[in-house]
Design brief:
With about 150 residues, this protein is mostly beta strands. It contains one helix and 13 strands; from the N terminus they run ββββαβββββββββ. The strands form two sheets. Strands 1, 3, 5, 6, 7, 8, 9, 10, 11, 12 and 13 form an eleven-stranded antiparallel β-sheet that branches. The protein is globular.
Length: about 150
């Protein structure tokens, strides 16, 4: 099932964590890393999970935006990009059933880093080979009141 334009929460199947930029970032305008956020990050955000905007493009691809930044691949990881939108990816978001999706760009898939035990921000979202549950994500549409 293809996703429509709108606002979504994205969660990792591997650990159930919400996917987003960490609320504690440096103030520079360099691309910002994306993580499977631990509970302490959600607490900083008053219990709210990060919201993503999905925009369907021609050819079935998507523009994924988080925290007012388009996303792309920088140094092998998913990053929020402030200005150089030429680096913004046109992502494939493919259903694999059971309300789960794979997200990819140029044949490489979102996957959670496995070596992030010492990073307080949680596992980074990388782009590479499929890694089972670490490469599966749940997209939950956010209902907006009128």
């Amino acid at each position: 099932m293809s996703l429509g334009n709108g606002t979504y929460l994205i969660q990792s199947k591997a650990n159930g964590a919400p996917i987003g930029r960490h609320p504690v970032e440096d103030k520079s305008l360099i691309p910002k890393e994306v993580f499977a956020l631990p509970q302490n990050a959600i607490n900083i955000m008053d219990g709210r999970q990060p919201e993503w905007t999905l925009q369907k493009l021609e050819g079935g691809k998507y523009r994924l935006t988080i925290g007012n930044t388009s996303t792309g691949v920088v140094n092998g990881g998913v990053r929020g990009i402030f200005f150089d939108h030429s680096e913004a990816a046109e992502w494939s978001v493919e259903s694999v059933g059971n309300e789960l999706y794979e997200v990819s760009f140029d044949g490489k898939f979102w996957t959670l880093a496995s070596d992030s035990a010492d990073d307080f921000r949680g596992p980074k979202v990388l782009v590479g080979e499929k890694q089972g549950d670490a490469s599966l994500f749940r997209f939950i549409r956010v209902a907006r009141g009128n």
